[in-house]
Amino acid sequence: MIKKPAVPNGQKAAFNGQREGEELLFVFRRHIIAMRRGFYLLLVPFAFSSIPPLLWQNSLELFLLPLGGLVVGVVLFSYHLLMWRYTYYLVTDQRIRQVTQKGFFGTDVVELNLSKIQNISYNIPGFSGEIFKYGTIVIQTYVGDLIIRHVDHPERTYNQLQDAVMVAVGKHDIHEEDIA
After folding, report:
1. Residue 54: phi, psi to the nearest 5?
2. Which of 1, 38, 89, 149 minimizes the number of CB atoms within 10 Å of its CB?
3. What residue ranges define each of the domains in the chain, with the CATH number in brackets?
């Protein structure tokens, strides 16, 4: 069963670039574990800037250094948070749309028709993947593979994608029979 996105007041879910008659099935994004580089960039400047005040405790000005390290860490963390937040995957009854944020002003969009998908598989990478519920989904097509790393709850997303592809292939086959 495909979950419909929650939309207030019974309105239809819409997104930028939606086609006439296209229905949004679900939206998913990468797991928060994909942000671990951002967490490291938050902690490392603060940790290194905290060392001088610990070594030379008689200089009162050095106690401002960890505050500066924290500010630098928060700025670096915010950048990674924005890149994670604005990278998402839309699945409609016709296609998958990958929207990837590249820097503050760049965006990459990749679309893949559901009827062109040959195979979908997923992988959970060991103990950490089992504990934190993330994994990799591989979508195989005629022209290549779409690899989505660090997907939140990959089994659930895999099942939703399989359902969407089955419905799309059924509609595509019926449409081809009408043309012939």
Report:
1. -75, -35
2. 1
3. 24-31+88-179 (2.30.29.30), 36-81 (no CATH)
